[in-house]
Known about the structure:
Helix content: 10-25%
Largest sheet: 6 strands, mixed
Oligomer: single chain
Structural class: alpha/beta
Shape: globular
Distance between the termini: 54 Å
Amino acid sequence: MVTYRPLPLTETQRSTLISSALSARDGSYSPYSKFRVGACMLKEDGGFVKGANVECASYGGAICAERTAIVKAVSEGTKKFVGLAVTSDVPAIISPCGICRQLLREFCPLDMPILLVPSNYEEGVTKVVKVSDVEGKGTEGVLVETTMGELLPLSFGPEDLDKPRDRS
Protein backbone atom coordinates (compact mmCIF):
# COMPACT_ATOMS: atom_id res chain seq x y z
CA MET A 1 0.00 0.00 0.00
CA VAL A 2 1.37 3.41 -0.99
CA THR A 3 1.07 5.99 1.76
CA TYR A 4 0.28 9.51 0.67
CA ARG A 5 3.06 11.96 1.50
CA PRO A 6 2.22 15.68 1.68
CA LEU A 7 3.82 18.12 -0.71
CA PRO A 8 7.07 19.75 0.47
CA LEU A 9 5.97 22.26 3.10
CA THR A 10 7.00 22.22 6.74
CA GLU A 11 4.26 21.55 9.28
CA THR A 12 4.55 25.18 10.43
CA GLN A 13 4.21 26.49 6.87
CA ARG A 14 1.19 24.25 6.21
CA SER A 15 -0.49 25.24 9.45
CA THR A 16 0.14 28.95 8.91
CA LEU A 17 -1.03 28.84 5.28
CA ILE A 18 -4.28 27.12 6.30
CA SER A 19 -5.04 29.23 9.37
CA SER A 20 -4.18 32.44 7.52
CA ALA A 21 -6.44 31.54 4.57
CA LEU A 22 -9.27 30.76 6.98
CA SER A 23 -8.79 34.09 8.80
CA ALA A 24 -8.42 36.01 5.53
CA ARG A 25 -12.09 35.28 4.77
CA ASP A 26 -12.95 37.82 7.48
CA GLY A 27 -11.60 40.55 5.20
CA SER A 28 -13.95 39.59 2.37
CA TYR A 29 -16.23 42.25 0.95
CA SER A 30 -18.89 40.13 -0.75
CA PRO A 31 -22.27 41.86 -0.35
CA TYR A 32 -23.53 40.58 -3.74
CA SER A 33 -22.51 36.92 -3.91
CA LYS A 34 -22.39 36.38 -0.14
CA PHE A 35 -19.52 33.98 -0.98
CA ARG A 36 -16.51 34.78 1.18
CA VAL A 37 -13.12 33.50 0.02
CA GLY A 38 -9.76 33.70 1.77
CA ALA A 39 -6.30 32.93 0.44
CA CYS A 40 -2.78 32.94 1.78
CA MET A 41 0.41 32.82 -0.28
CA LEU A 42 3.76 31.64 1.07
CA LYS A 43 6.47 33.91 -0.30
CA GLU A 44 9.87 32.54 -1.32
CA ASP A 45 11.45 34.45 1.60
CA GLY A 46 9.23 32.58 4.09
CA GLY A 47 6.75 35.39 4.66
CA PHE A 48 3.00 35.12 4.21
CA VAL A 49 0.50 37.39 2.46
CA LYS A 50 -3.26 37.08 2.85
CA GLY A 51 -6.02 38.08 0.49
CA ALA A 52 -9.82 38.11 0.43
CA ASN A 53 -12.29 38.57 -2.39
CA VAL A 54 -13.55 42.11 -2.96
CA GLU A 55 -16.74 42.73 -4.96
CA CYS A 56 -18.33 45.88 -6.33
CA ALA A 57 -21.66 46.84 -7.88
CA SER A 58 -20.04 46.56 -11.31
CA TYR A 59 -19.62 42.78 -11.09
CA GLY A 60 -16.75 42.63 -13.58
CA GLY A 61 -14.67 44.77 -11.23
CA ALA A 62 -14.61 42.12 -8.51
CA ILE A 63 -11.27 40.58 -7.57
CA CYS A 64 -10.73 37.11 -6.16
CA ALA A 65 -8.87 36.37 -2.93
CA GLU A 66 -5.95 34.74 -4.73
CA ARG A 67 -5.43 37.74 -7.00
CA THR A 68 -5.76 40.11 -4.03
CA ALA A 69 -2.90 38.28 -2.28
CA ILE A 70 -0.70 38.25 -5.39
CA VAL A 71 -1.33 41.92 -6.19
CA LYS A 72 -0.53 42.92 -2.59
CA ALA A 73 2.73 40.97 -2.63
CA VAL A 74 3.87 41.97 -6.13
CA SER A 75 3.13 45.64 -5.48
CA GLU A 76 5.48 45.40 -2.48
CA GLY A 77 8.27 43.69 -4.44
CA THR A 78 7.60 39.95 -4.04
CA LYS A 79 7.41 38.03 -7.29
CA LYS A 80 8.12 34.44 -6.21
CA PHE A 81 5.86 32.16 -4.21
CA VAL A 82 6.22 28.62 -2.90
CA GLY A 83 2.77 27.77 -1.50
CA LEU A 84 -0.92 28.71 -1.51
CA ALA A 85 -4.00 27.87 0.56
CA VAL A 86 -7.55 28.77 -0.53
CA THR A 87 -10.80 28.42 1.42
CA SER A 88 -14.38 29.66 1.53
CA ASP A 89 -17.48 29.30 3.72
CA VAL A 90 -18.55 25.96 2.23
CA PRO A 91 -17.55 22.54 3.60
CA ALA A 92 -16.46 21.35 0.15
CA ILE A 93 -13.24 22.71 -1.28
CA ILE A 94 -13.14 25.44 -3.91
CA SER A 95 -10.45 25.88 -6.52
CA PRO A 96 -9.02 29.07 -8.05
CA CYS A 97 -10.93 30.35 -11.08
CA GLY A 98 -9.37 30.49 -14.54
CA ILE A 99 -8.19 34.09 -14.28
CA CYS A 100 -6.57 33.37 -10.91
CA ARG A 101 -4.90 30.24 -12.25
CA GLN A 102 -3.31 32.23 -15.08
CA LEU A 103 -2.08 34.98 -12.75
CA LEU A 104 -0.75 32.35 -10.31
CA ARG A 105 1.08 30.73 -13.24
CA GLU A 106 2.89 34.02 -13.87
CA PHE A 107 4.56 33.96 -10.43
CA CYS A 108 4.45 30.35 -9.19
CA PRO A 109 6.45 27.26 -10.14
CA LEU A 110 4.50 24.36 -11.61
CA ASP A 111 5.39 22.12 -8.64
CA MET A 112 4.22 24.67 -6.05
CA PRO A 113 1.94 23.11 -3.40
CA ILE A 114 -1.65 24.37 -3.37
CA LEU A 115 -3.95 23.49 -0.46
CA LEU A 116 -7.69 23.58 -1.11
CA VAL A 117 -9.20 23.87 2.36
CA PRO A 118 -12.81 23.12 3.38
CA SER A 119 -14.49 25.66 5.66
CA ASN A 120 -14.81 23.06 8.41
CA TYR A 121 -11.09 22.21 8.46
CA GLU A 122 -9.75 20.93 11.78
CA GLU A 123 -6.02 20.44 12.16
CA GLY A 124 -5.20 16.82 12.88
CA VAL A 125 -8.78 15.73 12.13
CA THR A 126 -9.53 16.68 8.52
CA LYS A 127 -8.37 14.05 6.04
CA VAL A 128 -5.72 15.24 3.55
CA VAL A 129 -5.87 13.77 0.04
CA LYS A 130 -4.15 14.38 -3.27
CA VAL A 131 -6.20 15.78 -6.12
CA SER A 132 -6.23 12.50 -8.08
CA ASP A 133 -8.00 10.80 -5.15
CA VAL A 134 -11.06 13.07 -5.41
CA GLU A 135 -11.84 12.96 -9.11
CA GLY A 136 -15.49 12.01 -9.42
CA LYS A 137 -15.93 12.04 -5.65
CA GLY A 138 -17.14 14.73 -3.31
CA THR A 139 -14.69 17.08 -1.62
CA GLU A 140 -16.72 17.87 1.44
CA GLY A 141 -14.68 17.71 4.62
CA VAL A 142 -11.31 16.86 2.99
CA LEU A 143 -8.29 19.04 2.39
CA VAL A 144 -7.08 18.55 -1.18
CA GLU A 145 -3.42 18.97 -2.04
CA THR A 146 -2.49 19.78 -5.60
CA THR A 147 0.12 21.75 -7.52
CA MET A 148 0.11 24.66 -9.91
CA GLY A 149 0.84 22.26 -12.78
CA GLU A 150 -2.09 20.02 -11.87
CA LEU A 151 -4.45 23.01 -11.66
CA LEU A 152 -3.36 24.39 -15.01
CA PRO A 153 -2.01 21.60 -17.24
CA LEU A 154 -0.41 22.53 -20.55
CA SER A 155 -0.22 26.08 -19.28
CA PHE A 156 1.12 29.14 -21.03
CA GLY A 157 3.72 30.97 -18.95
CA PRO A 158 6.37 33.68 -19.19
CA GLU A 159 8.97 31.26 -20.59
CA ASP A 160 6.73 30.63 -23.62
CA LEU A 161 7.29 34.20 -24.77
CA ASP A 162 10.98 33.39 -25.33
CA LYS A 163 10.33 30.46 -27.70
CA PRO A 164 11.58 30.86 -31.27
CA ARG A 165 8.96 31.88 -33.80
CA ASP A 166 8.34 30.51 -37.23
CA ARG A 167 8.75 33.58 -39.46
CA SER A 168 7.60 32.00 -42.72
